Amino acid sequence: MKKLLYNLIKMTFANFAHPLRTLRLIAFLLASTLISAQTKISLEKAIELAKSNNIDLKIADKEIEKQTVLKKTAFQPDPLQVQYQGGQFNSVDFDHNFSVQQFFPLGNITKANRQLQEELAKLAEKRKALSSYEVEKAVTLAYYQYLYGVSVQKLNSELNEIYTKFLKNAELRFKTGESGNIEVISAKAKVKEIETQKAQLEYDLVMYQKQLQFFIQTNENIIPDENTALQYTFIENQETSHAELLMTDFYQQQISVYQKEAGTFKALRTPKVGLGYFAQTINTESLFQGFTAGLQIPLFGGVNTTKAKAAAINISQSQMALDKNKMILNLQKEELQNNFLKQQKNVAYYQNEGLQYANQIIDTAQKSYANGDMSYWSYISFLNQAIDIKKQFAEATHSYNQSAIELQFPTIKNN
Predict the structure, then answer these.
(1) Alpha carbons 287 and 280: distance in angstroms, whole number
(2) At a CB cut-off of 8 Å and minimum separation 6, what does 121 contact?
(3) Are residues 173 and 30 part of one domain?
(4) Residue 269 sits in the same domain as residue 322
(5) Are β-strands 221-224 and 38-41 bridged in parallel, bridged antiparallel, or unpaired?
(6) CATH code of 311's domain
(7) In terms of domains, do 100 and 85 share one?
(8) In this structure, are 45 and 15 located in the same domain?
(9) Torsion on CA atoms 137, 140, 142, 146, rounded to nearest 10
(10) Burial grade of 369 (CB within 10 A; 0-12, 13-18, 19 or more)
(11) The whole model's pTM is what?
């Protein structure tokens, strides 16, 4: 690769006096570099690959794993208390006392902790589902952006063929004295312009490919399958869209976490029972043993009560956020639906009528001009009209794809 870049720079300076030739050369070399190691895949395969490679999704998997591991922390006894005492606490003799004590939680605190961890693990899964949704949307947009670049390239090639034929006719008419040199000059200028645009389009396609590769997060030069239809296939959602289900699941799971959190704080207000053992000497003679039992009573449990109330407030906030974002999502879908219908009608016109008119105009104009039945300026005017129709169709299809994908994957608010 370094050698290729070096040669590229060297040839660029060598051809500095020929900018058009240099531009074509650079574009050709870049395109050749990509083509040599391109992997063509379907949209479904691209999405699958992106989801398996995406770093954010891998981080989400680790979060799920972490929360699952933390289920083992549900049982939380206090640290074992070990104590030694030595001195004259029974007589003038130096005696020894050794004791251990362990407190255990009572009530349903262990159950509450376990349930909270289970809900946290589920919440991590919901977050991953949202991230996966965003990855799928990004890959789909990038995939069809590349296809749009390919369609523009094909149109450029078609225009090059049309104007090359026009140039030949203009040169023939000039030789026979039927027209002036202005037609030949104009045709050559247009052919050079199209060739320059071709080189620029090569750069655009490289950029689109890198965007797709970025979202798939791979070192391979991934490109869309050439058999993929240029027009995105929109799948009509049912009564409740996939986006709304994901968003609702996330917020409802968040509410479940806060509910279990409140239950955990309430359970912390229950006493703990302690069991102990001691052994000591009296007058330095023998060991005298015994057992202890006790309770830890949270007389000042206001802190946990307050935390439980705060968790209840969090529940209300999450419910309000869900209601607000549902409203935003529905309004967004209405706007996207209107734009989609507009773009759909626009594409339908070009597919059913516009392209046919363009092809008829080109065929008729070329024949008339070649037979001498049409003036140069009329020919150029009709040709530009047909070309504009074809360009507008490519733009219309691109706009349709973007609107369809946005409607298929509306933006989800989760904050």
Answers:
(1) 5
(2) 64, 67, 68, 71
(3) no
(4) yes
(5) parallel
(6) 1.20.1600.10
(7) yes
(8) no
(9) -170
(10) buried
(11) 0.79
